[in-house]
Structures are given as structure tokens and as C-alpha cells.
Amino acid sequence: MNIVEGLNRRTFLTNSLAACSAIGTGALVSGNIFADRTRLASQVTENTTNDALSPALKMASESLAALDLLEDYSATFIKSELIGRNLNNSRMELKLREEPFSVYLKFLQPSSGREVIYVKGKNKGQLQVHEVGFASLAGTLSLDPEGSLAMDGNRYPVSKIGMRNMLIKLVDTWVAERQLSGMTVNIFPNARIGDLSCKAIEISHQTHHATARFQLTRLFLDAEKGWPVRVQAYNFPGKRDKGSPLAEDYMYADIKPNNGFLDIDFSIKNPKYQF
Questions:
Q1: Which residues contact 240 (CB under 8 A, 6 or more apart)?
Q2: pTM, whole model, 2 decimals?
Q3: How much is the average pLDDT of 243-255?
Q4: Does domain 2-266 have CATH number 1.10.10.10?
Q5: pLDDT at position 221, please?
Q6: Which residues, in sequence order, are bridge partners of residue 234?
Q7: Rounded CA gap, 169 and 165, in Å?
Q8: CA separation for the pair 205, 178 (Å, rounded)
Q9: Considering Cα of 101, then 120, then 39, then 228, what sign does the dihedral take?
Q10: Rounded to an integer, what distance in angstroms lies between the CA atom of residue 78 and that of residue 197?
């Protein structure tokens, strides 16, 4: 899939998201929906004196409010993650329910057909995994979401996937770094991801601070719905890099809200699944 962002004063290169890698995903701290909203609202209030960051936090707070209207959603989840020196790409079908937090993943690329289920408070906190190929002979696997097998080749566990988690994690990063000198905030009201109209927030550091997690981060908000549909993060360039290397890229496409998902949608007993 070719994704082209038109960002007002800047034109970014077409980023072709291929596909090929493992079980983990998203990014974040999950938790009570309303607690998340209250915490973010307090961050907006506390940071109103920071003229540069305040508009970005306000937009993030409004986006979180838009997510409060979603009880569940399905989407195509696309991610790129820098693991060591390798950029791992993957693409999967996602079903997500907010309460209780529940996830179903079906991999499209790589490992086409792999299925993963996670339900908070169920299955002893373990992932339920149906592998493909020879590995499928082992039957349904129960894995620790943060264990070495589940985390191999991934930056975050399945238990922390989702637009809400992704947004909160990014805002936490922004707020933690708000006092660093040389922070630049740009807001692009007419950005695009393919045919989708977006608002984009770009925050960068002109100085390589040891405490800064990334050199540059971008948040894309669906212009109509307000949902946080994509986050990109770039590392500070190293001696061998010509520019800032991509570290993380998470995108939720073809989002279908409020499907009325039931427990069976997050169960290995679902006859539509291959567990």
C-alpha cells in the first residue's frame, strides 16, 4: 500500500508499507477509559503555558473524546518497527473491544493465517495463538504477552495494541519532553493518508537530547471522525544514517466502528476461526 501524506509546507516521500513480521503491536498503557480521559485533560490544563505544545495536547484530548464513542472497532492494522538494524513490516486484520479489553488478530503478511486472541482477565492473562504451517501441529498455544516468544521481533505486546493506547503513549512522550530546549511543534490541517483527509501534528527536537525518546514524531487524526489513525516516530540519526531513521509506524485503516462484538468474537471456540 502506498501512503502519501501532503503536509502543507512539507511533502513527505511515499512510504510503501510492505509486510512481514510477528505477534506484537501498537503501543501503550491501557487502563480505565475515563481515567485516561481525565489524565489527558489535566495534562492539557497543566501545559497551557507552553504555547508550542498546548494546541497539540488540546487536539489529542479531543481525539481521545472521539474514541470514547467507540465501544469496539475492526480495522486493518499496519505496522513497521525497527528491531535492531531491521525494519519489520506486518499487516493484519484487527477486532478490538474496549470493555473488557479484547483483541483478535489475523495475520495477512507475513505468516498469513496466524491468529491471536487476548482478553484482559481471561485465559490466565495469556495470549491464545494459532500458528500456521508445521507449527500449527502443536495446537493452540498459550503465551505470556510480554514473554520472549511473543515479543520476539516486536517492540510492544498485543495487550497494548489499539488507537487509545497509541495516543496516550505518544502524549506521555510529548509531556515528558516538554521542557527540553529546541522542541518544534507544527500542525498541518490539510494532511492526507491516501484518500483520507487528516490533521497532522509533528513534533521534533532540533538538539539531540539524551532524554528524548525520538527526534521526530507525527500524529495523524482523521479530519472527520477525530480518531488517531497513524503515528510515526523517527530516531535521531546515527553516524551511518543520512537522515532520521524510521523507528515506528503504526496505522489503522478501513476502520469500522461499533460492530457490537460479543465474547465469541474473542474466543478460540468461534467456528469462523482456525484454532
A1: none
A2: 0.83
A3: 96
A4: no
A5: 98
A6: 216, 246
A7: 6
A8: 10
A9: negative
A10: 18
Per residue in 2-18, pLDDT (tens digit) is 333 334 333 332 232 22
Exposed/middle/buried for residue 130 (C-beta within 10 Å: 0-12, 13-18, 19+): buried
Q: Is the pLDDT of residue 250 over 50?
A: yes
132: which residues sit within 8 A by CB, 6+ positions away? 111, 112, 113, 114
* pLDDT tens, position by position, 113-123: 999 999 999 99
The domain locations on the chain are 2-266
